[in-house]
Specification:
Layout lengths: L1 H26 L19 E9 L4 E6 L10 E7 L13 E9 L2 E9 L2
Parallel strand pairs: 3-5
Antiparallel strand pairs: 1-2, 1-4, 2-3, 4-5
Amino acid sequence: MNTLKTLITTAALLVVTPFAITAQAQAVDHGNMPGMKVEQPAATEMSDGEVRKIDKDNQKITLKHGDIKNLDMPGMTMVFKVKDLAMLDKVKAGDKVRFKAEKADGAIVVTALEVAK
């Protein structure tokens, strides 16, 4: 009976140990390791788009946009809320723009907006 318990315990450890090692490796802060180059998160990238419509009353903008990498979203035309109403004063329908969008409170919100050069 003791041999069976030992065998079961050993088998359980062999199954669980790789998961524990993987979890610990994922928790390492690679940004603090000497010589390691850390890529900037995709959230800092701006996406390309074209203003289709501006709705200041509802603090929204309609953009035809390319891929939004940080949201893993393909290109399409959609309506976004804007974080700051003043952003809408800087653009007009037809303008080519660069923008950042993030998920916030269950919606996708434009957090930065500039006319493309």
